[in-house]
Design a protein that fits this description.
- The chain is mostly helical and about 130 residues long.
- It contains five helices and no strands.
- Helix 4 packs across helix 5.
- The longest helix has 28 residues.
- The protein is elongated and about 60 Å long.
């Protein structure tokens, strides 16, 4: 049995097929109550193809890196790491969060710059009052 997308993504690259299947799967998950209707599945499949065509028009020709986690999760993880930072535990944090020492340092430094910048703005705003 073919899936509703099978006849619609002819000509897509392997990576585009993977993205289309991922989008379609998420649409089915989000509309779980109504996917028993074959017409609904076909509409979701066509919506997926429309999204893929739009992505192709808007972003086609360029390469993009898609992280394994979304930005919000990364931000939460980064601030959790920063809260655990003691000034000398880069190696411990690297091991705990499964990343290189250099990447851990980069995250801690970025968080430090953000905190410093916010403090400076706070001081500037209070001096203007």
């Amino acid at each position: 049995m073919t899936q509703p997308l099978d006849e619609l993504y002819v000509g897509y690259s392997d990576s585009m097929v993977l993205i289309a299947r991922t989008i379609y799967s998420e649409l089915l998950n989000q509309h779980q109550k109504s996917v028993d209707n074959p017409n609904r599945k076909q509409r979701l499949a066509k919506l997926t193809v429309a999204v893929m065509n739009r992505l192709s028009r808007e972003l086609g020709g360029d390469s993009y890196y898609i992280t394994k986690t979304n930005a919000m999760e990364l931000t939460e993880r980064n601030w959790a790491m920063f809260k655990e930072f003691k000034g000398n535990n880069y190696k411990e944090l690297s091991k705990k969060y499964g990343m290189t020492n250099a990447h851990t340092r980069k995250i801690i430094n970025a968080c430090q710059r953000k905190v410093y910048s916010e403090r400076q703005m706070s001081l500037l705003e209070s001096s203007l009052d």
